Structure formats: structure tokens, C-alpha cells
Task: structure prediction
Amino acid sequence: MKISAIVPLLLLACSVLTSAENTEVQQPYLQDISALLKEMSTSLAQQKVEMRFLQRMNQEYAAKLKQQKTEATRQKAEIDKLNKQLQGTSFIGPFTKHTTLVFEHVLTDIGMAYNKHTGIFTAPVRGAYHFEWYICAHGNVGTGAVLVKNSEYTFLAYENQSKYYSTSSNGVTLLLEVGDDVVLRLWPGAKVFDDVSHRTTFSGHLLFTM
Result:
């Protein structure tokens, strides 16, 4: 009877002692976990701040990149415009001998008598033809061209100006037989200038047949 009464008390005491020991052992671990969670929370907050900063930087970079792209597009448009203008600009001469001027931009060619590859006009019928030519140059250089019928030099247009643009012009009416050739030749030492405004031109038309 006495033994059975003592044993529960010892067990209870042992049980109570064991719980106390577990609490003392677990306390440092709980503190470590708490410190770790606090450190993780601080690190997460810092990462959020850094993420916001990176997002702001990314937005600023995207806006700057968009602005640069717009500026590049504008500059490309200006360059394309200038290139298009330059494609229609040409300087011819000076040469040491007479050189045939070839007018590649043909506005009107009724009867297909002008060859834009050789610069030669060939009379399709016998008749009186009137020709005019306007020659332009830029800068301190002479500009001039002579109209040639077959191998015969007819009339010359010539001008020399010290600066800016200089122009010369002339006109003549010729009696041409079928197959006669007429060309405009650059005078030796002279120079001509042309652009999209077509400052240098050559024209001719049939007045009447004979």
C-alpha cells in the first residue's frame, strides 16, 4: 500500500522535472528562430526597396530609350530627305574638250526624237525646229554650252560670275533634214550645275514641216 502511493508522486515529480528541462532547452532555439525571422523580415523589406528603385530606374531607362528612338527616327527622316535631294543634284565638268550634255530627266518627248541615254536629238521629219537651252553654274566658274547640228557648231551660251549662281541661255531656229542630229555640248573648261529645281534645261520643237 505504501509503495503504490509513493510511485505516482515520483512519476509526477519526474514528469514535472522533465517539462521544465524541455522549456529551458527550447528557449534558446525560439530566440534564434525569432532573430532569424526578424533578420529575414529586414532583408525582405530591403529587397522591396531595392526592387522599387530598380523598377523606377527601368521606367526612366525605358522613357529615355523611347526618346532616343524618336530622335533617331527624326534624324533618319531628315537624312533620307537630304539624300533624296542630293540624288537630284549633279555637277558636270569642267572638261578639257567639248562634252555632250545628257539630260536624263525628260519631261516631254512627243515623237520620241530625243535619246536620254546619248543626249542626241534626231529630226524625224524635214522642217524648221526651234531650240533653247539654259545653263546654270555655282561659284567662281564659267558655265557655257554650244548647240551642235551634226558636226557644225551653231550658237554658244556662256557666262562667268565670281560668286553665287550664274546662268547663260540662247536659242536658235534650224532647218533640219530627216536624220539630222542636234546635241548640246559643254564648253571646254566650263561647268554646269543642276538639281531638283532643274536649273539647266534643253528644249526643242518643230515649228513647221517643209
